[in-house]
Amino acid sequence: MSKTKYKYNPQTLSYEEVELTWKDHLKKLSYHLISAIVVSVLLLFFSYNIIKERGKKEALLNNEQTELKLKEFDSELNNMLIVLNEMQFRDDNIYRTIFGADPFPDYKREMGALDNKKYSAMMDLAHGELVVNISKKLAILEKKITAQSISYDSVVKMAKSKEDLLQSVPSIQPVSNDDLTRIASGYGYRMHPIYKIMKMHTGIDFTADIGTPIFATGDAVVEQAEVMSGYGQMVVLNHGFGYKTRYAHVSEYKCKPGQKVKRGDIIALVGNTGASVGPHLHYEVFFKGNHVNPVNFFFNDLTPEEFEQVIQISSRPTQSM
Fold this sequence. Notes:
By secondary structure, this protein is of the alpha+beta class. 42% of the residues lie in helices and 23% in strands.
């Protein structure tokens, strides 16, 4: 298309070519620029509103999706805490019970003081309350998982030392008692032979001649071999794992403090020392510092029938010696 401009001349009744100056060209260009700017502004104005509305919708959608993801994570944390609590219950009430160990201390599983300043700052975030709740649960999980790991390490060590435990538990009778007739008095309230009053008898009495061998009932270290009021000459063995045994009224020591002994080793001889009215061995078992009935540990060298007979004999309300 020709860019030549023509103008009608009424004098000559004809179109004549018009010569454009640089000003005319500049003016023409400015018209195009202004038109382009106006169109661009109009397009931008309408586009901005469309983009703004779309951005709001996307932001709202992202916000809802973020909240949904946070709630899903919070639910997963709740499930993890339930599983961890179940693990703790099994640890305390099954695994540790098997090895005669105390439950893992609660204070090692409990949370320390919370950093309230840190959580207060989180409240200013989007979904602040949910974020704070999740952060606290994460802190609890971290503490509990660390404590549980330490507890399991100790359980593993106990499992590895199970053989030592089985060898150390006092599980035989301290004097030869093939016919089971040497049990003179059992554990419980009995008539005291000297004071003639009912008094707690914290062990089992075995009648035997002076000089009868007394055996260590489990692997142990000799803790005491000395005279004690009422018990006369006596021996205390520390078996480890919370177990100790006492052998009283002995006539002669066959061991000394600090010595390691094995189950079945002779540690003393039956006697009649201390508050005793006749030759016998007074035998006690301790677990974690408390007296327990020794008859419950005579399972290594008795048949079920013999064990039942021992239970019956030891429970008779006889006089202690």
